Amino acid sequence: MKQRRPALALGLSTLAMASSFMVWNVFSPIAGSLREAFGLTALQQSVLVAAPVLLGSVMRFPMGIFTDRFGGRRVFTSLLLFLVLPLLLTPFVSSYATLLLSAFLLGMAGTAFSVSMTYVSKWYPPQKQGLVLGLAGLGNLGVAMSSFLVPLVYRQYGLPGVFYGLAGLILVTAALFRWGAGELPLPEKKQTVQESLKVLRFRSTWLLSLFYFLTFGGFVAFSVYLPTLLKELFGMAAADAGLATAGFVAAATFIRPLGGYLADRIGSRQVLLGVFIGIAGAALLLAFSLKDFRIFAAGCLLAGLCFGLGNGAVFKMVPEIAPGHTGAVTGVVGAAGGVGGFFPPIVLGLLRDSGGTYMPGFVLLALFACICLWLNGAGRRMKEREPAKVSAA
């Protein structure tokens, strides 16, 4: 039984993260319909889909610390139960302000990432971290499931069907996790906030945060804004755009474990070298294909594959920065990735309202990928000595 406990922890954590990410992404697939129903501008729509990303990002750091201190089973169960109330209240919203408040509160679902990664990493040795955390990242499929299912349910049953259905799913998931997942013994000496904050001193923490800002931020930004782009640029129906977005998310998610596996074998920096080149190329392809669906789709697929490989490779390095403080590092890096998904939709909305085109946004993405490529090369010879400092602290 003990040999099965790590696998059970991985499986249930992935399930809980997938359910949470369905909630986190719930507004994106129906944003176009909500725009018509509430009379929103392009910028207001962008803010609506980005709002959950904001809270889900900034709260990842404290939630990672809480997981280190109180254990993943307790923190994850509490998080899931918290989500039920805003899910039940959302069908009663009657204005843009209350809709935005609901989206903001449901953003807590995005913190499931740091809880899941911190919880799972404690069950496996360092040499398996890349693959295992990549498998845990399959919880991102929740975004694909919501992209596909939410428009269908909304069309048949409206907001009550969507949000009451998700509330039921979250309650079932909370029960399964509470009574099915194990918990490793917690340290007798609890880490203080000051000890957890020490990870902010390390260059590697900020370098990985920048890389994850690009790879996971890009993944989130495409996931929440791709339905809008497909509907506006190519006139796709909401259900079709949701299905296409689900395909993008699935491709990026399923390839994530491969990124972790390759990082275990050849090193994260080698994987990231190819990833950043690929993202830059995909961004330029997208910038100049806003009227050609086939080329645009190819660019999205290339970007998604690179985002997924990069996510797996980055998180291979996270547990190595500060053993014993994985939750804190996961929170910082995860928060950076979430914030990376918050700004692009707003920037794209501003560009569309002011200049009538999305092209400059994709050019900026290519430029940022080139900056990360240079930093990855510049940091190749940097040996991380800081874990020893943390252990001694």
UniProtKB/TrEMBL annotation:
Membrane-spanning ranges: 42-63, 75-93, 99-119, 131-150, 162-181, 206-227, 233-259, 271-289, 295-315, 327-351, 357-375
Compartments it resides in: Cell membrane
Domain Major facilitator superfamily (MFS) profile stretches: 6-384
Pfam families in the record: MFS_1
Membrane topology note: Multi-pass membrane protein
GO MF term set: nitrate transmembrane transporter activity
Keyword Amino-acid biosynthesis (UniProt): no
Entry annotated with the keyword DNA-binding: no
GO cellular component, one term: plasma membrane
Keywords, comma-separated and alphabetical: Membrane, Nitrate assimilation, Signal, Transmembrane, Transmembrane helix, Transport
UniProt signal peptide: 1-18
GO BP of this protein: nitrate assimilation
Family: Belongs to the major facilitator superfamily. Nitrate/nitrite porter (TC 2.A.1.8) family.
Name the record gives this protein: Nitrate/nitrite extrusion protein
Species this protein is from: Paenibacillus mucilaginosus 3016
